[in-house]
Amino acid sequence: MKNLVIVESPAKAKTIEKFLGKDYKVMSSYGHIRDLRKKDISIKVDSDFQPVYEIPADKKALVADLKKAAKSAETVWLASDEDREGEAIAWHLYEVLGLKHYVRPGVPVYYIDPRPASVPDTVCTIPLPATRGMEKLIDILRPKMR
Fold first, then answer.
1. pLDDT digits (tens, 9 = 90+) for 20-31
2. Could you please report the per-residue DSSP string of the chain?
């Protein structure tokens, strides 16, 4: 496969795949593929506040399918929504799928607007993974601050 495009929703995947052509396979991540662990604080406070993530059981098969597709693609496009959630989803996909070897220094991860006229125009996004960790720490500390 030449190009793999990963979007957030299955509806977008169907729409985008219709007009990208035969050199593109479009798959959906169905939203987030991992999150902070549920059972504890999930932040290594003594290790520069490193987050501890887990892939939910209901996403493991999907992640395996995405990894397999990514390995067989020449190019992987992370086409998440252009918002904070989309940036987080793209960052987690990049990390979990092991896409580091696809990215050259200075080459951005891309956002693709799902409208046919917009696909040729890509917008660079900068993932901000620390936000979820900050939110969780604030939720834990807030009751203690009162």
1. 888 889 999 999
2. --EEEEES-HHHHHHHHHHH-TTEEEEE--S-S-EE-SSS--EETTTTTEE-EE--GGGHHHHHHHHHHHHH-SEEEE---SSHHHHHHHHHHHHHTTGGGG--TTPPEEEE-SSGGGTT-EEEE---THHHHHHHHHHHHGGGG-
